[in-house]
Amino acid sequence: MQFPIRLALLLRPTVKIGILLAVGFSVLAFVSTPFLLPEITDHYGISLGAASLIGVFQLGGFVVTSWGAGRWLQPRGWVFVTSLGAAAAANLASAALPAFAVLVALRLLSGLALGLLAWYGWVQAFGDTRRMDDVAVTGPMVGLIAAPLISVLLTAGGARLVFGALAVVSLVPLAFGYRSAVDHLPRTATRNRAVPAARILLICLGLFTLGGSSVFVFAVVLGTANTSMSVTVIAVGFSLNALVAIPAVRWKAPRKFPSPPMAAAAACVILIATSAHSWLFFGALVAWGFFFWLAIPGVFEVLASRSRYPEERAGDAQAVMAAGRAGGPLLGGLLIDGLGTTALGVVGAGLVLISAIGVFTVRNVAPPLPTPDKTQPTLGSQT
Questions:
Q1: How far apart are CA 39 and CA 32, in angstroms?
Q2: Helix axes 231-249, 17-44, angle to 10 degrees
Q3: How confident is the model over 293-318, as pLDDT tens digits?
Q4: What is the mean pLDDT of residues 10-25?
Q5: How large is the average pLDDT for residues 154-174?
Q6: Distance between CA 320 and CA 316 in Å, rounded?
Q7: 151 Cβ contact partners less than 8 Å away, ≥ 6 residues apart
Q8: Distance from C-alpha of 223 to C-alpha of 228, rounded to nearest angstrom
Q9: Rounded to two decimals, what is the model's pTM?
Q10: What is the dihedral of CA 87, 89, 94, 95, to 10 degrees?
Q11: What DSSP string describes 155-217?
């Protein structure tokens, strides 16, 4: 964790360093899952579909707390400290590799803690472009070192060492500033429903992350099995995936046409799942990071312009994307065990391509909507 600490100090972020490190820890925890799946499969003697439950439940916990925290909690320091403590406890207990059902429950606890940390971090950035940039770029920056680090730990001590290291690293943010800059979150009595165009776009975002995550979480398994690449080389691919995501996140040009990069992401998905050539697999793994982050902000822009209350749809978008990521590992595991990697690639890429077509259609058929006058009554309105 020294690299992100020094980098954060160098860039003088507007969000407290401890909070950025906690967001970075969340990335590290999620990146570890693809590398842990083969180890879990071998240790417990179970199928990939069953092993994928550690990712499904961890992401499911993330969905629950990242969605519910803003409705029931205020960003207080005790939430931050408790979340890190729960993450440390869950990972320390996971290092014992207990009965598989217990391990799944522990990953759920880890996901609940990670969701709270992500919410706490994004609350600091709400409504401020500079702060949002600081939080958003933390993921790709930590991703640069996350995969090689996990690979080294796996080689040295297997899953036990990875979980143990995550337990230790989870406590590092407590040594830095983490007091929330937001004193109070306003509560609204009612929420406005999305108009049909916005609903279709939200479904497309869910399908996009469902199809992508169904393949991406098994990238280590697919790379080692289909191309005979080493885990270390695949870890380098993950790092480059994060590296190329940085310019995509920072892209300054207007993103009026998100469907082409979404379609390109679909091509990456099927190549990752089916390619027997190491250079094709590696290139698709790296390119996926660029096309994903080039597409998503563009879809958000389309969603905002087709919504009367875009601030509410932004939260909905994060929720459906998280739900797609949670379902992806289970879908991918079932397809690999049942129909094989070719079917996985076709289904995963197909879902991503359908989402690209849906976004293209809505963008060209549904005109942008004016935002309502928030000072006037909006009873009975739909957004």
A1: 11
A2: 150
A3: 889 888 888 888 888 766 666 667 77
A4: 76
A5: 95
A6: 6
A7: 35, 231, 232, 234, 235
A8: 7
A9: 0.81
A10: 110
A11: HHHHHHHHHHHHHHHTTGGGGS----S-------S--PPPPHHHHHHHHHHHHHHHHHHHHHT
